[in-house]
Amino acid sequence: MRLHDPKVTEVVIATKNAGKVKEFEALFGAQGIVVRSLRDYPDIADIPEDGDTFAANALIKARAVAAILGAPVIADDSGLAVDRLGGAPGVYSARYAGEPCDDTANNRKLLEELRRLGPASTDSEGEAGPDRGAAGGSGEPVRLSGAQFICSIAFVDAEGKQIALVQGECPGEVLDGPRGAGGFGYDPLFYVPQLGRSMAELTMEEKNAISHRGQALRKLWAELEEAERV
Ligand SMILES: O=c1nc[nH]c2c1ncn2[C@H]1C[C@H](O)[C@@H](COP(=O)(O)OP(=O)(O)OP(=O)(O)O)O1
Ligand SMILES: [Mg+2]
């Protein structure tokens, strides 16, 4: 299947995450492509995500669902890597606070782990800028650590053969408390310095323009377009 083929009107994304589905719907919808997800196939059982990397897990999910549906499939494996936690929760982002997965519990645990380390200022990488927050200070938000969102997207054919595997990253900082009601997952704790807002305070369009997922998907499209030229 070629995503840019005008005959392609539908893609299957191997995710149960409603937040991801909405973002993919906005991104693919702009191209007139309808998104199907595992929310449309409730009988498909949970797929063990036991890879060591986002890329490995994206391939595992894509291949598992391609084998069941006998169709090409896209999968997204993503998460948050926090500098002061040595890259945690990383591939364990969804189950950071244990299972069943719970965004609120995960956010609470992230704050607990960072607060346990003490004030971020003692761990500065020398980039204390004018808008780096200080508790009780100017009203700027307090940030506990640098972090990045990472998203791997795998695209496999009906036989499970890898067609493309791409990754996008979005740098930011972890806030000391939630801000905003949009997005999903860790978005309320993820501050985007260049916009001066949390991910959960962005519109869908703003988030997709800068997010790890938006970047990964645009890389996928670019790769597929390039492949069609040769
Ligand atoms: O844009 C994002 N904004 C906020 N949080 C995010 C984002 N992107 C990933 N995340 C978090 C959510 C979850 O804690 C983990 C993904 O885990 P991940 O296994 O890839 O997804 P999932 O289990 O929710 O759904 P599924 O595996 O069915 O695709 O990282
Ligand atoms: Mg998952």
From TrEMBL:
The active site is at D77 (proton acceptor). Mg(2+) binds at D77. Transmembrane segments: none annotated. Its EC number is 3.6.1.66. Substrate binds at T15, K16, N17, A18, G19, K20, S78, F184, G185, Y186, D187, K207, H212, R213. Binds 1 Mg(2+) ion per subunit. Signal peptide: none annotated. It holds the Pfam family Ham1p_like. Gene3D superfamilies: 3.90.950.10. Its cofactor is Mg(2+). Keywords: Hydrolase, Magnesium, Metal-binding, Nucleotide metabolism, Nucleotide-binding. InterPro entries: dITP/XTP_pyrophosphatase, ITPase-like_fam, RdgB/HAM1. It catalyses: XTP + H2O = XMP + diphosphate + H(+); dITP + H2O = dIMP + diphosphate + H(+); ITP + H2O = IMP + diphosphate + H(+). Residues 118-140 are annotated as: Disordered. PANTHER family: INOSINE TRIPHOSPHATE PYROPHOSPHATASE, INOSINE TRIPHOSPHATE PYROPHOSPHATASE/HAM1 PROTEIN. Belongs to the HAM1 NTPase family. Homodimer. Pyrophosphatase that catalyzes the hydrolysis of nucleoside triphosphates to their monophosphate derivatives, with a high preference for the non-canonical purine nucleotides XTP (xanthosine triphosphate), dITP (deoxyinosine triphosphate) and ITP. Seems to function as a house-cleaning enzyme that removes non-canonical purine nucleotides from the nucleotide pool, thus preventing their incorporation into DNA/RNA and avoiding chromosomal lesions. This is dITP/XTP pyrophosphatase. It comes from Paenibacillus filicis.
